[in-house]
Amino acid sequence: MKQADANSFGATSFGAMQTTIASAVTMSGVGVHSGRHTVIKLHPASADTGILFYRADIGDDDGYVLAHASNAIETQLCTTIKNNNGTEVRMIEHLMAAFHGLGIDNLVVELDGPEVPIFDGSSANIVDAIHHVGIIALDSHRTYLEVVAPVRVELDAGTWAQLIPAPSLQLDISINFTDPGIGEQSYRYDSRDEHFSTEIAHARTFCVYSDVEKMRRAGLGKGGSLENALVYDNGTLMNEGGLRMENECVKHKALDCIGDLYLAGMPIKGLLIAERPGHRLSTLLVQALLRDESAYRIVSSDEDVIASSADTIQMTLAASA
Ligand SMILES: [Zn+2]
Q: What is the pLDDT of residue 264?
């Protein structure tokens, strides 16, 4: 293993070699929905592991859940994965965004409960922790998933997302909320600009106050507060410190999309165009992409097309078992 060069550190670039972190790092915090305090430890992992979650409170083989669209289940308000033994990990999206955004291919994410902590509502703490220990290159070429034909998913009320061919991971997303504090916002992102750490990672999750009341009635949002979410009430932002950046809401949606797209199991080369994206839409899009073998190819960084999707998923699962 060798230290990744300075130019690739913290970057979204899809360099030639697979990466992991240089040493383990521990964080802890509260789950936004469960309110439960959880310790999370990121461990370096060997090439072709992918992003593998491990529930230490479950242990042994039953505790491992690979972050892959084939393990994603439909849930409200967050992205959840579940293995064949019924072990779940909830709220993985802000971690996944940090890993996809920073170009980390392999990690074991150990946690002692079912929900990833919300931290400050963004990926900032995770990115800082990873920068603290550093990213290293492994002795294996990176594989990525290249979109070669359009794939589109549509939900109700003008909510849709499409992936089309592009030379890098790119986003063009728009949101439109009735609360005038949020309103219409749009944002374009190209991973080649390497702006993930500076433009996106600090963007916090957001909601409107009436949704907070609904979540609480549904038994969710127990750990939510103005410390970990932007909250709008009829056009007024309730957080005293104000926004961290212009268009913070749509940039957080970009963060969520980057995280959810990593359920492909490897970095994506393609342009995501989305109107009013959410976790359900993004997950369905990745699943639709992986189902349509004419829409993508899996390419090694030494430029050879190496395998069909099914083969690669099997290889990944075998490597992580
Ligand atoms: Zn989010």
A: 97
206 Cα: distance to centroid of ligand 1 (angstroms): 8
Neighbours of ion ligand 1 (CB under 5 A): 205, 256
Average pLDDT in the chain: 89
- When mean pLDDT is compared across 93-97, 211-215, 248-252, the lowest value belongs to 211-215
Res 60 pLDDT > 90: no
Cα(318) to ligand 1 centroid in Å equals 30
Range name among 54-58, 141-145, 311-315 with the lowest pLDDT average: 311-315
CA–centroid distance, residue 86 to ligand 1 (Å): 24
Tell me, in angstroms, the distance from the centre of ligand 1 to residue 38's CA: 18
| Residues belonging to the active site | 279
> What would the 3-class secondary structure string for the chain be?
CEECCCCCCCCCCCCCEEEEECCCEEEEEECCCCCCEEEEEEEECCCCCCEEEEECCCCCHHHEEECCHHHEECCCCCCEEECCCCCEEECCHHHHHHHHHHCCCCEEEEECCCECCCCCCCCHHHHHHHHHHCEEEEEEECEEEEECCCEEEECCCCCEEEEECCCCEEEEEEEECCCCCCCEEEEEEEHHHCCHHHHHCCCCCEEEHHHHHHHHHCCCCCCCCCCCCEEEECCEECCCCCCCCCCHHHHHHHHHHHHHHHHHCCCEEEEEEEECCCHHHHHHHHHHHHHCCCCEEEEECCCCEEECHHHHHHHHHHHHC
